[in-house]
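We emphasize that the prediction below concerns an isolated chain of 382 residues; any contacts that depend on oligomerization or on bound cofactors are therefore not represented. The input was used exactly as deposited, without trimming of termini.
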Amino acid sequence: MTPTDRPLHRLLLRASLSIAQLFAWIFVFQYFYFHSSSFESAAVSFALTYALTQVITILFAPIAAMGLRHGYRGRMVFAVLMLATAYGTMAFALANTAFSFGSAIAFFAILIGLYRAFYWTPYSIAARTNSGARHTSWEYLLAFLPLIGGFFLQQNTGAPATLLVIAAILALLSLVPLLSMRDAHEGFSWGYRETFHQLFVSAHRRMTLSSILHGAEISILLIVWPIIVFVILGWSYALLGIVMSFIYVLSIPISGMIRRSAMMLSAPTRALLAASAWIMRLSVTGSVGVILIDTYYFGGSNAPSRGLDMITGEHAADNTTYVDEYTVLKEISMAMGRLIMALIVAILASNMSVTYDFSIVFALAAIAAAGGIFLSAKSARL
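Result of the prediction step, given as a token string:
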């Protein structure tokens, strides 16, 4: 194992996610919309598909953690293969009309859930390879990939399948440095049923609730907000890619400059910053508003502390690093929060217009953001 194996693996895997994750979920929504001709019906089906991913993560995360005693590398390889297969399945369905795209979406949701449940790097490996230090140049490279992907999708009708194949190949290439890494073994002291029991014991209750709230907030950022932006921009992949890349590029230096200062702010102030961005999103009508508000959110609210990798659209506890048993509790709790919010979106969309639906879930996201920050601050003081 060399010091560059882990960073190179992460670069290739994050490139796969950055170029395709956003658009893959857009494809899912478009499929439901064009088959139902109803925004509300599409929102219900889309939210339930996302909920399926969270159920899979919740059910399999303890199994993945229990298996770390036999080594981490095999589980990471399995997770990456699930991600590549998820993209490959959707690409195959897009390129072959004889294969049901609806079935491909179900497989995609399940496989993404398995990827999230099994993808963990032990802390000892992450620390030894200094993987937490990200090169700024790499971050900018990854930030431009949505722009490249968006323009690529505008080329021809076969572009969506090709883009997903490219993402699958990048994920598979990330296996090369991963297989060069020395295996390591981690302990996990709880059984399957006991893991879920530990979520609700008094000592962990505050952490569980804060993680649920973080998950609820981030789910709206990852599944509802991109759809709204896509519609605001006239259903244009290219414009969506431009706007998202612009936000990421602006957020990198801003977050770097103010993150330390932001953490010195009181919990109420940080909660207000995070919640206010969600309220401001209710008034967005164009690309400039999206860029300003999202840059404010990513740069000022310290979203990475709530498990978000903004460039890849990935949400994971402890930056995908397995620290100890609490990492698994946080991952399950965050998935529970995402599941709860997805079900709320589905219920609201099936009973009212999307205008009221999105207004309510944005208000809930603001409450979840503020509540999660308050609880996290209190947990840190205990």
